[in-house]
Amino acid sequence: MDAHDIWNKMADQRECMPVDRDGERLRARPMVPVVDEAARAVWFVTDRRSAKDDEIARAPQVCLAFVDHSDHFHLSVSGRAGIVEDRAKLRHIWSSYMEAFFPGGPEDPNAVLLKVEPEAAEYWDGKGDIASAFELATSIISERAPDLGDNAKLRL
Questions:
Q1: Which residues touch 78 (CB under 8 Å, ≥6 apart)?
Q2: CA dist., res. 46 & res. 113, Å (int)
Q3: Which pLDDT does position 69 carry in this prediction?
Q4: Helices (H), strands (E): how many in the chain?
């Protein structure tokens, strides 16, 4: 799996958990990613009234956690985030899902963009439930480490 494959995997996901710093604590929130490999960015629409903009301004290093249960694929993406005021970009990435949170549409004054520029990723591409269970049982009997799939770190 290469960097392009990772971008494609991110683009296939309907949600992820961005993790940022709230003072000394880490905090994750479920959000809808809009992945743009050409711009090397992952976009989110967030509410300017939330604490995310202040938290990101103080500590822009974030982590995006993606899980695809159907494919047994897990992905952790590290990068830098920032709040972006760009109504044209907001209109470009807008979806009907966002309308539930911002009834004023992309012109809603509380809707603002969170841009994450990925720097590195680590993935775990696992086997299915039955194959994993068999591998775990076999490893116990044979006293060897189980092979539960692929794991690698990549620069993005």
A1: 61, 62, 63, 64, 118, 119, 120, 121
A2: 6
A3: 83
A4: 5, 8
